[in-house]
């Protein structure tokens, strides 16, 4: 009985998430919380106290002399680390990366307990396309690509490709392989699905009049043909309606995909972005590995950790870059607050790569960037430590486990890659994008809910999917993301602020996946590499382009 | 107080005929039921705990002793003997009726099963011990003492005969132990209800009748739910008495024993039977050791029961065995339990053996050094997680640990039941850059069983076998490499981490076989 109201919040349907969340918030006062409060766990998230200090202009003016600096990277997420990696590859020695948090890694950060490492956010990387040259170069360096086949296609390390079974779906009380429901569907719905697949295959193969693929990753390499760009004018749901893709099972699957990659409802994303999800992946690998994914127990934490290792001497965490302004001699002035020493410094840099989310960059460097109309999708990620792996009727445990009936995106199994044991403890990483609510309202919910309330919600959702886990949950650690993902809203391709950021030239350039409108590792990496190469050119440092 | 002068239990001096008859019939019924519960407890104890002579004698001894306590306690029943008798019947019906089902269900759940067993035996014994003295007192006005003792004891002994004949000949084979308990519980409650019906005009019977009906209803429900309970109770799953059962974080370990045949089950899958495990283990170990000139370093992956290690230790050329098993509980069990350690000749305590508790999937990736012989003895690939231990990636790592002249063997499921799965192992070893040769042996408790030899170089026919083996001779060894057409090699995919071809074909082939 007690669990019911929170379960309803997870399953919140037409009424919207806010109503459900508010409902269980009220319940938090009358006995719901202690039930889950007996579970150990922590409530974490991006350090928004530091973020808000910056937002509210509460950081002190620098004192002391202006210091001379080489190249500065402001922000240690994937784009900033990729920029740093690129600079190190080119042999540039004089650069510093400032990160506001105590740890670099951005969305790809990870945690670890006695049972396993686990992701706090992004958890896999699809095998990159042929056009993602710099990324492939890096994966080779990190031992993730182990060679080439006779056709020159990269061979990926089998231990790092996601092991079978990749996905399973709980559909009408049974687990089945794959994420699209099978069995018991009217043939008209199955036909629509086949037609949708065929349409996406067409788009995948389509080359624009400019000779570029219709949809590419990095997205900047996509065709600029007007009829393709026109897709950006309407939202994905409207496009699906227009094209007659109305079957409920298909729409449920597409909604899952949209929320999985963009943290947003199909109604809120551009049709261009919605199609990009299905039509842009042409993973290039030896044999049949092209459509597979790379993953690790700690998710993309592995990738950021390897990048950070490469540039370890250049990393300066717990430092907020809070102002970037043009200097008198053309060299930018950068104000940095040191959170440990609690004082600010001013640097005069030869160049700066602003690798912060765009909404922060616009505040820090108003002379160079406009805020624009960018929205971010908030998320909750919970890491659930369990005594035994989940089971359930039908297909056995997969890496990614999704329930058709749940508002959450299900869970991935952290030890999927690293264990062969059919038992023993593991960590399940559970994902929920707060996509039904406006981002602002969702962020309010993020900040006000207690750990016990989140834990109750996660536990109820998990036990609904896997009643076999009853009594096996040891702890639930909850991580909140306020602005993790840019939302590719309709019109994002022509968004002036985005185009201005793309067009910026050294000494102040930008690097983040917001510039792509798609919160993907590949996009952040590409933007980091581009910014690094533009800066190297500006500094007159020789290099061979990887972009 | 002199019982002779005070009428008891509201029984009038001239009781109506039906009561006397019911009471005499009930002597027969309670005697039968009493012995049935005793037999149930004894049989259950020897079934679940093994060693039937000890279990039977201690259970029957405790039961008789408890009956003595009951008889002695009957003196404290000073009035209303018939009311007390009715309630005793209802209690016996509940406890005795549920005894078999309860003990079966409790067995896997409780730490010390003996405590539950003897507590129940004592409780039922005390209650049964109360019955006859109370009945004698109730009936004493109906018969002369000479007749009374004769009647009661006659019915008592006849009941015992009925019970002891019915139990082995009809009840256990036809009804099973769980249903037998419920049926005789219903007999007890029927006695109570019959008495309540007869007495309904002389006393208030509502509360007792309600209790009796509730117990009767629960017994009827139990009778019809017995099938489901058998399924819950894993004990019923095994054909043989279970002597050990334990859940570790990794698996459910169960050991059964019958007529000197001990069997190990992991998650319900048979791992060995002491009757024929020598065939399995000789065929696993000696084709490898017999093909290596100087097997000094031997690696065993899996095989926490120590039986493969026992075979290897017989070879005095072997200097060191490294054994990697996932489950510490498993190796502890087979090292520290005298009866089980005898099976493997205390191999797990040998100074020549080093034990690692690790997931072999990870262990082989980190391990350094090389081994002259490697024995891979994992459970069948019934799950994606286990299927990883049969992939080309895994075998590449194992091949790295195999000395240039070394030989390895892989337990590879049945080539008769699952030929495609069986030959997938060979194809996968070949894809990992090794030469592979399949062979098979007949192990009665498994059926026709398959293994695969692999090496960096060609695998020769020449094999050196020790003389003391029970199954393998040079001639039978040679014959193992010959496959008749129904098991002959066929084209198969390579099993990879990202296709798990083996798990899929294994499920398909065994699924067909098991229907």
From TrEMBL, chain A:
InterPro entries: Amino_oxidase, FAD/NAD-bd_sf, Flavin_MAO, TAT_signal. Belongs to the flavin monoamine oxidase family. This is FAD-dependent oxidoreductase. PROSITE patterns: PROKAR_LIPOPROTEIN (PS51257), TAT (PS51318). It comes from Novosphingobium organovorum. It comes from the Bacteria. Residues 78-534 form the Amine oxidase domain.
Automatic annotation (TrEMBL), chain B:
S-methyl-5'-thioadenosine binds at residues 251, 325, 359-360. InterPro entries: PABS (IPR030374), PABS_CS (IPR030373), SAM-dependent_MTases_sf (IPR029063), Spermi_synthase (IPR001045). It is a multi-pass membrane protein. It is found in: Cell membrane. The active site is at residue 377. Pathway: Amine and polyamine biosynthesis; spermidine biosynthesis; spermidine from putrescine: step 1/1. Its EC number is 2.5.1.16. Keywords: Cell membrane, Membrane, Polyamine biosynthesis, Spermidine biosynthesis, Transferase, Transmembrane, Transmembrane helix. One of its GO terms (molecular function) is spermidine synthase activity. PROSITE patterns: PABS_1 (PS01330), PABS_2 (PS51006). It catalyses: S-adenosyl 3-(methylsulfanyl)propylamine + putrescine = S-methyl-5'-thioadenosine + spermidine + H(+). Spermidine binds at residues 281, 305. Catalyzes the irreversible transfer of a propylamine group from the amino donor S-adenosylmethioninamine (decarboxy-AdoMet) to putrescine (1,4-diaminobutane) to yield spermidine. Homodimer or homotetramer. Belongs to the spermidine/spermine synthase family. This is Polyamine aminopropyltransferase. It comes from Novosphingobium organovorum. The gene is speE.
